[in-house]
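ok so i was messing around last nite and threw this chain in just to see what happens. nothing serious, just curious
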Amino acid sequence: MAGFNSQRWSLKGMTALVTGGTKGIGYAIVEELAVLGATVHTCARNQELIDERVREWKNRGFKVSGSVCDLTSKSQREELIKTVSSVFNSKLNILVNNAATVTLRSTTEYALEDLSSMMSTNVESPYHLCQLSYPLLTASGNGSIVFVASIAGIKALPRLSAHAATKSAVIQISKNLACEWAKDGIRTNTVAPWAVNTGLIGRTPIRRIAEPNEISSLVTFLCLPAASYINGQVVSVDGGFTVSGF
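result:
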């Protein structure tokens, strides 16, 4: 039986794109993928922060690069994938659609502009990135897509109706891609956290909110060869919140 030092538990030689990787969950995902041997590219809106993070990771011996991308821009998404294709020689093993936005308001307080903005960032952007990345993922012969959604896409929660709509959409996109692209050697799964200590969510009924690395560990596992038979799944990381009844 292969041990934990085997290739099944390693990402050595694999390439990954993680959106929104300079802070929070994205930062933890980049770091964990790199620790397991992946070569990672990430993107964010702030060039100074990207440069700072890349220097930090390289000083620790990680293979990480980064570029600026406003994910609400179609042309910038296209430019991002051109950059990734160039950096990784037209092959990509892992796409983690992490970047997202959330605004907590009651339904009557949401302006249509709020909904449009969240749909653009949380749904249109990852959907388009999957389309753009498809040739690269197929070329790798071993592709994995992970969406970072939310249990708001599964369970009704207060002040999150618009956000919940976007996360439900992401979950369904993930399931459809899992069926459609399995024949191309691409697995697609979703991680659905609840409250995470990223600074975006304030008070919560949960006694202890999760740390970003408690989410990144599952994201990373789903990208490993050891998870090669996991496809089309939505896994909640919520400390039991969705089954607690409160």
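not much to say yet. The chain has one domain: 10-238.
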